[in-house]
Amino acid sequence: MELKVVSGNISEFSADAIMVNIFEGIEYPTGAMAAVDEALDNTITQLINDGEIKGKLNEVTLIHTMGKMPAARIAIIGLGKQQELTLEKVRGATATGCQQLKKIKLEKIATVAHGAGVGQLDNEKVGQSIAEGAILGLYHFNKYLAPDLESREIKELSIVEWDEEKIPSLERGCNRGKIIAEATNFARDMVNEPSNTMTPSRMAETASEMAKVYGLKCTILNKKQISQMGMGALLGVAQGSHQEPKLIVLNYEGDSTSKTALGLVGKGITFDSGGISIKPSKDMWEMKGDMAGAAAVISTMKAIADLKPKINVTALVPATENLPGGGALKPGDILKAMNNKTIEVDNTDAEGRLILADALCYARKLELSPIVDVATLTGACVIALGDKCCGILGNNQELIDKVRQASDDAGECIWQLPMIPEYGEQIKSDVADIKNVGGRAAGTITAAQFLEAFVSGTPWAHIDIAGPSLYRETKTYRIKGATGIAVRTLTNLILTLAEKGD
Ligand code: BES
Ligand code: ZN
Ligand code: ZN
Fold it and tell me: I need a surface site. Which of 295, 310, 337, 393 has the fewest CB within 10 A?
């Protein structure tokens, strides 16, 4: 889909449909809608009076213009109450509008900058939100379906703005939104891919192909190199599978004056069967998405390679399957991580923290700081916060606050959980330095405390995305299946860290 910002009057724009908006409770059309209403002999006023158009959030009313305007149809999108308008609602309403117009096979559509006028939202952010809503909302994973010859894709979306002064900021926002949304869809594609194709090797290839296109440095460590580095925990998880583990390293250098780099670490379990501590088969297929953290950090690197902020970032992805093969890790086994800490494996299904332990040690060796890891780590987080909100924990409140601020702006929900020191007792082992599980109680907290043992003091935040990595139903721009969660938060975080120069 081609996205552009055009200066002009939307009522004079020629397209298959133009999208205008209406707030709930408004008695007559204002702004761009007033001109449209006039051209349509007050049809919209009539529909409002008849109670057919209410302006409720995500309501879509389609009117044929019957030659009275250059555009063949008007789609009137409800934005809810004017005082309650947010960028998140702009994203959702844009997505809903685009989805409806795609359904009736329209190819060339246009929209006003919802909320930038009377809605009083920031112009640039509105441009970004419209691009995000449209691109994320029109996503679908149809790679393995027979081609649907009946369906049509929207080919062109123009944001039409009459105020010339607003054009440059709308364009900036629109361009940023496009890059971020496409990176999110890149993550969705990786996560939706089944585990028989998205193996650790395929994930490494995906990362290195992307790196080549965007001019990033990419290094892939193979099993032998992983072993030479002393990553016994990652190797331990990998030993039950025929797939070779990989450690993917991506470097973005945007600030040659600085020696420090932000570290991103993503859990890359391409399938989590649980291993010998095998999971129940019901819904086990969802564990093809246990590499959503990996997909999020690889895709964030794609976005920033395009946006070019002044900052250095290194992404690390430990990638392996967790299977119960003949050589598999067993409960009671003891592994040695890269920092020489020994780990008693009490449950082979707590594998994410094992592979992350080695990746975090490696991040320390590369002197990355701060470190943010993203992982589908615990079912306990889904119990605590549901599937609409991620958990965040860490050892540095300032960093956590920055991530939370970035997530608020992105429209991704992240809630902080406490690192209650007493609970650390639960992961003490009698036979090794640490144990990989701490019982059912406070499972997300003890998982984070396990990771903390491998960052040794570096400012670090851990985002548990187990819930929101997958949606069970489509809701506006959040499409059923992989969500690409955390790409927008991480990208926002990096842009703000770069702006502030810290
Ligand atoms: N990949 C799972 C966590 C998960 C659960 C992700 C649900 C997405 C949705 C993780 O490896 C796991 O199995 N964790 C165990 C830990 C337990 C054995 C301490 C869990 O949460 O049950
Ligand atoms: Zn597991
Ligand atoms: Zn897992």
Answer: 310
